[in-house]
Structure formats: C-alpha cells, structure tokens
Amino acid sequence: MAAINADPEVMRWIRDGSVRDEQQTRDGIQAWESEWESQGFGLFAVEIRSTGELAGFTGLSVPDFLPEVLPAVEVGWRLGRSHWGQGLATEAAAAAVRFGFEERGLERLVSIAQVGNDASERVMTKLGMHPVRETVNPTCGRRVRVFELSSEQYATTTR
C-alpha cells in the first residue's frame, strides 16, 4: 500500500494531491482498522485472485473531511496504477456497496470525487449512484462532486 500511496499519479485526486510515505500509510491503515472496531465497517484490501498481489483497497468510511454531507457513509477505492482500466474498482466497490446495504443495513451511501476525476465518476455511475451536489473540500480547497445511492434505489437495481 505504501508504494500505491507514494505514486503521484494515484494520489493526484486524493485531498491536496500529496503522496504519503510509509509511516503515513501505516498510520492510515491503523485508522482504517479502528473504524472497523468502532463503526462495524471499513476498508477491504483488493487483491488479484490469480497472484495474490495487492491492487489497492475499497470499502466504507465516514467522510469526516466533508461535514456538510454528514451523517453519511462513503464508498471509496484506491488502486495502484497498474490496475486501472480493468474494471477492478467497479467490481470491488460494488461488493462494498452490497456489504453496506445488505450486511450493515445502511440507508444511503455517498461517494465523493474531485471535479475532473472522470474515472471515479464513471465508477460511481456504474454503481447506480447519481450526483447530488458540488462543493469544496474544506481540507484542501478543491472542488468535489458528491454522488449518492439510497438503499431503496439499490434494491430496485438488484432485483
């Protein structure tokens, strides 16, 4: 995960675009593990089945960085560049959405992407999400779009 977080191309759409070093990655993983304990959900490692290689992560988290959407749970993902364009983000995020609605009984999920991150917005659309607002991420001043999917909308698309 540290190599993925150290890639400027991967990180350009994350917060202010800064890369993360090994210690920052370690701290982030500890925070993700704590979220599992406190919230009952969190992030999953995404591995390539045939090789066991770590491709990145997907999962659920509380988007504390954007208070105006709270209370909310966000579905998100981050993949290493060598795994882009293969449908992995959509497949993994769809599993996280299913987990959130079917296993955790959540009422709605959001996903947040910086304006211009068309690849992430395509994934959101494939998940059945729709844009509900455009705003500014107060932690970095960048414009973001918030997409949303309700449990009712999810139920109608999975029947």
Automatic annotation (TrEMBL):
Domain N-acetyltransferase: from-to ranges: 1-156
Pfam families listed in its UniProt record: Acetyltransf_3
InterPro entries in alphabetical order: Acyl_CoA_acyltransferase, GNAT_dom, N-acetyltransferase
Lineage: superkingdom: Bacteria
The protein's name in its UniProt record: GNAT family N-acetyltransferase
